[in-house]
Request: fold
Amino acid sequence: MTDMDFWNRHSAQYLEMAFETTNKEVLHLPDGYGKRAGDCGDVVAFFIKVTDHRLAHISFTTQGCLNTTACCNTVVALARGKTIDQAWEITPDHVKDFLKTLPEDHEHCAQLAVGGFYLALSDYQAKWKKTEKSA
Reply:
């Protein structure tokens, strides 16, 4: 397989999400944080900031393959600006559909990315409920 095969095999959306770097950052004092490791050895961590019950900022770090990076960036693109309830509706199938050319043998990367994001949402909701009870 040549380098051109890689570029021709993937959709523009996949390529954009695989090489996007602006969402890769550790967010200090996030409103929600979730970290998940996949059976493949890849690790993702999501950080979220919420303003007026909407996802105002989402970032991630990853130790994994290009497919995992593409899936994490896609989660950010799909979730940014959404309410928490809307964010819970994002599924691995949404990620795969957006990317169009995620290899079948790497569909677990979409599950890993969405799972890590769900953990960040859960963390936010747990903190929010604690704050609400103490008020």
About this structure: The CA atoms of residues 5 and 11 lie 12 Å apart. The two ends are 60 Å apart (CA to CA).
